[in-house]
Amino acid sequence: MRAIGLIGLVLALLLVGVLAKKQMSPAVAPALPPGAQATHPAPAGDARTQSRQIQEQIKQSLDAAQQRRPMPDDD
Asked: Where are the compositionally biased (Polar residues) regions (predicted)?
């Protein structure tokens, strides 16, 4: 009887571990806003150029997010 309880406990712990691992790993890459798309992608072997492009896209996204929107008048 104790063996069945121990097997059930191990299976439950295994299930929780698998679900936690699945939850912690990113499912899909985050989508970029439409304005942040690269006009021409870098060659696959040039990591430095790709890194610069990604940094520029992030900078543009952050700048766009920080822009103040005009507040409507309450009149």
From this structure: 48-64
